[in-house]
Amino acid sequence: MKIELAESYGFCFGVKRAIKIAEENKNSATYGPLIHNANEIERLKRDFNVALSENLDSFKSGDTAVIRTHGIPKEELSLLKQREVNVIDATCPYVTKPQQICEEMSSQGYDIVIFGDEAHPEIKGVKSYGETHVYVVNSADEVDALRLREKVATVAQTTRKVEDYQQIVAKLMAKHKEVRVFNTICNATFDNQDAAYKLAKEADIMIVIGGKNSSNTKQLHSIAKDQCSDSYHIETPEEIDVAWFVGKIFCGISAGASTPDWIIQSVIERIQQISHS
Ligand code: F3S
User: What residues contact 227, with CB distance under 8 A and at least 6 apart?
Assistant: First the structure.
């Protein structure tokens, strides 16, 4: 049986990068959860002694603080540096970008409109880089209530849909002479879906790996199932049933954005065993 992984699966670039940075900084602590994955955070603690602290004041001079993928507010970063904490920045470069845009456009006198969720750590961080007149909207309807000055610049939360952002931009353009639009949406979220779709079209069995309550894994499984009726959503290799593979010649594999590589690897090994038996 042929076994093939989707072109894009599992952790995105930014998360993989942050994990590598944390692994390279043993005996440190991340300020806030490094990524949205409890298993991985536990593994970093166990194998690399990278702790997690939600409390800024717990970092003292000489300590090493790893900044999480979603970034932190500018004031908190300055505070850590002032206290002579050794700051290691694992903020995803796709998140650093809107922070920089916000800072620069704001200093040039633009009002800033951020499309995103005000309560999300990424947006709290991005917003903090604007000097004044920074507004966060969650939908195009909310744009109507904004009282903006003439020059406007806009950025979006990395995980937003481009169609929704277009609606916000259209509203801004209808009212303002100068609108600077920065497309800060990250495609990584959607790459796994496109790749699962393509692979499921070819495969006669699809295994989708990820937490049972992970919404993006469920979505991947449903995309796969539409193309390949023998698609299974599993969390661990133990859930695999040998009977699924009888008469199959091409097994496709995909995994949700919060599934660690070591789980994916153990599933592949189990399928290889079945295929050789
Ligand atoms: Fe991942 Fe960075 Fe995009 S964390 S989803 S690559 S913004």
Answer: 197, 200, 201, 206
Domain ranges of the chain: 2-9+188-276, 13-91, 94-181
Catalytic amino acids?
122
Confidence of residue 139 (pLDDT cuts 50, 70, 90): very high
> What atom of ligand 1 comes closest to residue 69's alpha carbon?
4
Q: Do domains 2-9+188-276 and 13-91 have the same CATH topology?
A: no
Residue with the nearest Cα to atom 7 of ligand 1? Answer: 94
CATH number of 2-9+188-276: 3.40.1010.20
Residue 39 pLDDT:
78
Q: What is the pLDDT of residue 36?
A: 76
Q: What is the mean pLDDT of residues 47-72?
A: 96
pLDDT of residue 273: 96
Q: How far is the CA of 170 from the centre of ligand 1 (A)?
A: 26
Q: What angle do CA 108, 128, 111 make, to 5 degrees?
A: 35
The structural architecture, per CATH, of the domain 13-91 is: 3-Layer(aba) Sandwich (3.40)
Question: Would you tell me the crossing angle of helices 38-48 and 13-24 to the nearest 10 degrees?
Answer: 20
User: Which pLDDT score is estimated for 257?
Assistant: 85
CATH tag, 94-181: 3.40.1010.20
Residue-wise pLDDT for 4-55, tens only, equals 999 999 988 899 999 999 999 999 999 999 987 777 889 999 999 999 999 9
Pairing, β 29-31 against β 2-5: unpaired
Q: List the structure tokens of 96.
A: 């650093």
User: Are 6 and 253 contacting, i.e. CB atoms less than 8 angstroms apart?
Assistant: yes
Atom of ligand 1 nearest to the CA of 158: 7
Placement of tokens 């602590």 in the chain: 29
Which amino acids bring their CB within 6 angstroms of ligand 1?
A: 12-15, 69, 92, 94-95, 158, 186, 188-189
Q: What is the pTM of this model?
A: 0.82
- 11 Cα nearest atom in ligand 1: 1
